[in-house]
Amino acid sequence: MTYVTAHGVTQALAGVSLEVPHGSTVAFVGPSGCGKSSLLKLIAGLLAATAGAIVVDGQPVGGPLKNVGMAFQNPVLLPWRSVLDNVLLPLEILRENGDPRAPALALWRDRAVTLLATVGLTGAERRQPRELSGGMRQRVSLCRALIHAPALLLLDEPFAALDAFTREEMWELYQGLRGQREFTGVLVTHDLREAVFLADTIYVLASDPGRLVHVHRVAIPRPRTLSQVYGAEGSELMRRMREQIRPDRETAA
Amino acid sequence: MSGSRGRRVVLPLAVFVTLVLVWEAVVTLLRVHPVLLPPPSGVALTMVGTAGPIAFHAWHTLVTTLIGFGAAVGLGLLLGFAIGGSATVNDALYPLLVGFNSIPKAAVVPLLVMWFGIGTVPAVLTAFLLAFFPVAVNVAVGLATLEAELRDVLRSLGASRWQIFRKVGVPRTMPLFFASLKVAVSSAFVGSVISETVASNAGIGYLMAVAASDFNTRLAFGGLAVLAAMGVLLYGIFAVIERRMTAWAYAE
User: Fold this and answer.
1) Nearest by CB: B168 against A78, A97, A131
2) CATH: 3.40.50.1360, 3.40.50.720, 3.40.50.300, 3.30.565.10. Which one for A68-150?
């Protein structure tokens, strides 16, 4: 059971209290400046909460967590490393730190190749990041976030810089990954369609200070299709969320 | 590709040869006094005639430059890593460095001579003083501009500051470091020659100062030609090293 709560976090984020069930994916949506990214950093232990507590897997978060994978809008690959070596970076860190989760060296390559295959990057192992398209780079970034089989995957607008079609491909890819690997996903996004497609639960945040205003359970069964998201059920949910976010924007302006 | 490469070599060479020919023609046709402006052919003859001493002084200048440059690279790296790696060190040292760098280093030579006497030591130190700044700044910039997201990715794996520095900080700083080397080696060269001109008994700078005081314009121009060749060569060597070491930053 993964259990996450953030409670009363300075002016940036206040009175946010929630729980993320193990193996589920939740999304945070809201206007810019509502503390979505701060929330993600709090969960990862990269920021310290001034008040309240964050508990992951029964343990209070006191510093940077180690069983976490992160991916951002900017894929931040290392341009001097091949795709394969970029994906293997987390294992190098774990191994150096004597982390028991680091697999034997002999297994590394296979593990990375298998993971790259699940995101459709078979044969790209030796390529350099600069040779890849934006979508491919983001896939490599996702693989780097997953290579050490983290319990928690934290995604901060991971697909925001991609074109609409590539973004939809990435949603389906994420859905596929959920079927194959066990992780709890926390997604921060501006894109309501993305939230509806990917999340089991959507939290709508408001700004000044960042706070939780609405919770939506997405009832569309899995695996979801794009037509379901763009269909009646998804559209209705998006319409309601848009209304919940917009009045907040107008009062803030 | 090979055509444009040929162009890049042939065109400037053609301009250079033309300029030398024009110079020769003007000096000969207008009967310019050779003490004022000797013809290139005369300069070349003098260079051949004094090849031995010129080689001795050129070697001296080269060694002086490279010692100062080596020390500058060492200190530049250390300072750059410290400034780029720590906001506190940056706030404390960076303004001082910028202030120091705005001093014309030629003005420091008399002080160095006062402390260390006429000779190689002030030349090495002047070379060093001119060369360490570009290295330190480039290395600091390379480290300080590490993407926050990348830092987060690594920290969330339990990476220490040292690991982040080693795995990401150092490699991503290398293109800037190697780019700074060619600037630094040119600066070191300028520094050693300035100091040799003012206060030395060896080196091309010294040779030129002596030649000028003897109104030996041919030899002064000969020294200048050697300096130009050495400067281009040093810059070129480090430009090639830069491309070799950090090809990933230049591809495409």
Assistant:
1) A78
2) 3.40.50.300
